[in-house]
Design a protein that fits this description.
Length: about 400
Amino acid sequence: MRTRLIFGAMTGTSIDGIDTAAIRVCGRGLRMRFTLLGQSTAPLGDLTVRLRSAHRQEPLTAGAFTALARDLAIAHLSPLRTLADAHGEPDLIALHGQTLFHQPPLSLQLIDASIVAHAFGCAVMSNLRGCDLAAGGQGAPITPLSDWMTFRARRSWRVVVNLGGFSNATIIPPAPECADSKQKDASWLNLVRGFDLCLCNQLLDHIARTKAGIPFDEDGRLAAVGHVRAPLLIALRTLLDRQRQAGRSLGTADEIIAAAASTVADSTAADALATASRAISETIAAGIRHGLAAKRSNEKMQVLIAGGGARNHALLRELALAVGSPIHPTSDFGVPIEARETMAMAILGTLAADGVAITLPAVTGRGDTRVADGALVRQRVDGFTKHSHAMGLNPAQRAS
């Protein structure tokens, strides 16, 4: 069976770097198997300031906005080329782009995919949320399908928690009892749930920058020596719970960073970080408990964590206490904590190219869609270069 080499690339809401991953795929669609081959990262440099400015909705001219999309794509070329030098030329690249606005049904993941297609001469998939939004969905979370493909367990519940700029979770139940394997997979996927929860690293990093003058609290060292301020914790929990209970994907309109930070404004940096870490952890734990409503008490459960916050020891300690059970990095299950989202982009891009809708209606709330997700840019070199741009191509069109 022919294998494919797929690259995935991600810049998260923390806007601090570009992460890429290479996977080897065998098979097609939901039955495919995949192996992580390697990762590569690159800093965003001065793009961080420009992207954060755009993320704050500060005005840009059309020219400056177009240049930003182009420059971000160019910044992707180096880490993607590192992967290609190590593992070979890709068959497909899936780009998430930088989320600059998300307020469904409107959403913008900025990147000029044509730049990457031209540089590598392969198909490039982007705008992975587009068809979900067009079908009435929230466009997020988009990772539950890839989480199911990567982390599902036949006899135990798995909760995959991403500790990124925002926190989100995927709830994967044990396999249902079905005789037919295809029917089992369909039934299993219908039981998967996923949801955004609340601010995470965006809030912690903001506190670190504004109160301690550092980019972020490395390993949670400052929070570890701080004390939780109970009255401030209650106020902060109220704000974060409001996000969690909204029951929709979080984005630009939900960035309550200033309001959240103001609740701990009168405390020291260490106390503010300690208080915020507990508030975030308790909010995540409340979301997990709500998502596990169908779980029976005698069934096994494992909590898996990934994202930049998985290196924050103070946050992890608070999360374990709030959840009330051990937590495990996804690296214990073969996926490095910094590779989970980039692997997800590669998996989802492959599924979309295979004609599989990559979001789950029970998660995003989308209606039926007769097209796969994403915008496909093909770059073919046959003595000369041809471009074709297509939105949501069906499998027959993709094969032409």
